[in-house]
Amino acid sequence: MSTETITVGEVSAGDAAGQSVDLPIVDILTGRGFITGKSGSGKSNSASVIAEKLLDRGYSLMCVDIDGEYYGLKEEYEILHVGADDECDLQVSVEHAEKLASLALEQGVPIILDVSSFLDERDARELLKEVAKQLFAKEKKQKQPFLMLIEEIHEYIPEGGGMDECGRMLVKVGKRGRKHGLGVVGISQRPADVKKDFITQCDWLLWHRLTWSNDTKVAGRILGSDYRERVEELGDGECFMMSDFEESLRQVQMERKQTFDAGATPGLDDFERPELKSVSDDLMGELETISENEQQRESRVQELELELKDKEERIKELEAELEEARDLSAMAERFSRAMLEHASGRAFRTDITGRQSELNEHDEHDERGESGGTVVTRDDGVSRERQAEAESQAASDGFAHLESTDFGAGRMAEKAETAAGDGGHATERSSDQPGEADGSDGTDGSTTASDGEDEPTPESIDAPGDVEPSFAGDTERSVVANLRETLASLDPIARGMLAVYRTEPKLSPLDAHVRAGGDGDRTTAYRRNGELRASDLVEHAGRGGYRSRLRAEIQTRHDGRLGDDALDTAVARVTELLPTIEDGATGESTRDSTDESTEPAESDAEPAESDTESMATDAEIITDSSLVNAAKSGAGAEDEAPESHEQTQTEIL
C-alpha cells in the first residue's frame, strides 16, 4: 500500500503543465491535510474527488458533513449516511458513537456523519467528540489506516476563540493520530480563522482562490509573498498544491467529481435527485437496535420524571396539610391553656413543665398560706397545722383520694412509718378493695401484714432501679422503658459499641467494634453501627466518625421538657444496660462514663445493709419528718402537739 497512488488532477502552469498529479494513498490516509478556498472556488469538489478515489480502491473514511454536501457519494458507493433527520439512513445520537467507530475500523464501512441536521449544535459537537475519541482509542489496537474529512474546521479549532472538548479532541487526533494510522483533513473557506498550529503541521495543503485580505495574508505567509496576489487569480477547481512527500509547490487543476454534486448552488434548471444506494439490512439492524434501546431509555426517563413531578406535588399537598394540622394544634393548645387559666384563676406557667411544676405550684400555695400538698415539710408548727386541717377536711367529705394535693406523699409516709416499725417490711393493699384505700372504714388506708396474710416481698416495695425516675409523669415513663427495651434487643457487641461511643466520640464503626470486643470484620461492624443509627442512638460526627446521642434522644422524646437533674436520672436509668468497656472487651457490669454532655456516674452494685447512706427513690420518705407525724396523727389529732424534730426537707425529683 505504501507505493499506491491516486490521480487527482494535472499541472496547469509552468514547465510541467499537463502532467498528472498523483498522491500517495498512505500519506493521505494517515497524514494531516488542509483544503481551503472561498465559496465556489472548488474546495469541496477537491475533497470529494479525494474521497471518491479512496473509495474506488476500497479504503474506508468518514466525512464530517456540516452543510449536507456529501450524501451525493451514495449515488455510486454503499456508504452509511447518519445524522438527525429523515434524509439520513439512520438517526443517531452519542450512544451510537462506539458502534460507528467499530463499523468504520473493524468492518470497513465508509460513513457520512451529517451534523448539519442537528437542531442543537451541542448535540452535534458531543457526537463528533465521542466518535473521534472512539476512533482514536480503537486505532491504537487496529492500526488500520483511516481518514476523517472535516468540513468547516474553523468552527471546531478556531484561531481567536477558545476550544471546547470537541476541538481539543480533534487537535489530539491531528497531533498524535498519525502514529496509530488515523489521518485528518480540515476543510475551510476562511484560513484566517483556523488555528495556525494546525495549518503549519499539515503534510499537504490545497489553496484554492481566496480574495479576502486576511485570508490572502495567510496564504502569502505559508506559500511565500509572491503567492499572496496569485491566489486571487486562480480559476474554478484550480489550486496551489503544497506537499511534504514531494517537497514541491505546483499549480494544479483538480478533476471534477463523478458523483452527484449535492453542494452545488441551485440554478433555474429542474432539480433531479439521483437514485442513491442503500446499505445492507444487517448493518442497519445493529444500529436500529441501539436506537430502539435509546428510545426505551428516554421513554423510561420521561415516565420517571412524570412520577417524580407527581410525588413532588403530593409532598406539597402533605406539607400544606401538615401546616394546617400544626395551626389547629396550636389553636387547641391556646384554648386548653385559656381554659386552665380560667379554672385555676392564675396564669399558665411555661417556664417549667411536668411534675416539678406541680410541686413548685403547691410549694407556692404553702408559702402564701393556702391549702397545699405535703411535698415539702417544715419544722414550724404552722405548716403542720395547715397540713392537718387540709387532711381533716378532705376525709370528712369522703373525697380524700380526689381532693388531696400531696400526690401520694401521705401514703408514702405511712409506708415508711410501717417499714420502720416492723423491720422494713410493709405493703399497701389494692385501693380497689372496699374499706381500705378509700378510708371508708375509718382507717388511714394502709395496714401491716398479719400472720395470716402473705409476707410482702422486696419487689412490692419501690426500690432503686425498679421503677421509672420520679421526675416522669405517665406520658414520660414509656420513653425510658422503650429505650431500655431497644438496648435489650441489641446484641452485647452493639451495646458495647454504644458504650464506646459515649467515652470515645468520633470513632469509626470498625474501631468501635474492635473496642467493644468484636472482630475486625468491616461489614459486621457497619451492620451493628447501622442498628444503632436506626434506633437514633448514635449520629455521624464527621470524618467517618460517630458519637452517642443517647442523651439528646431522651430529651427529644420528652419534647425538650426535662430539666438537667431529671435528664441525668433518665440517662443513668437507660445506661444501666450498657456494658463496661475494658481493654477492647465488653464486661457484664454497668458502665460508668459520660455521654455527649456531663452525666452523673452510676454504679451497678446494690447498696449493702451496712451502708450508712441509702439510695433515695420516690418511695422513700424520711421517717422522722413532720410529714410522718402528720400522717400518724389522723383527722382527729389536730390538737396533739407533735414531737420536736430537726428541720428536714423531702424533695421528689
Automatic annotation (TrEMBL):
Q: Where does the Helicase HerA central domain lie?
A: 8-102
Which residue range or ranges hold the Winged helix domain? 474-577
Q: Which reaction does it catalyse?
A: ATP + H2O = ADP + phosphate + H(+); Couples ATP hydrolysis with the unwinding of duplex DNA by translocating in the 3'-5' direction
Keyword set for this entry? Answer: Coiled coil
Query: Annotated region Disordered: where?
Result: 347-477, 577-653
Q: Which InterPro entries match?
A: HerA-like (IPR008571), HerA_central (IPR002789), P-loop_NTPase (IPR027417), WHD_halobact (IPR058885)
**Gene3D superfamilies, per database record:** P-loop containing nucleotide triphosphate hydrolases
> Family assignment?
Belongs to the HerA family.
Protein name per Swiss-Prot or TrEMBL: DUF87 domain-containing protein
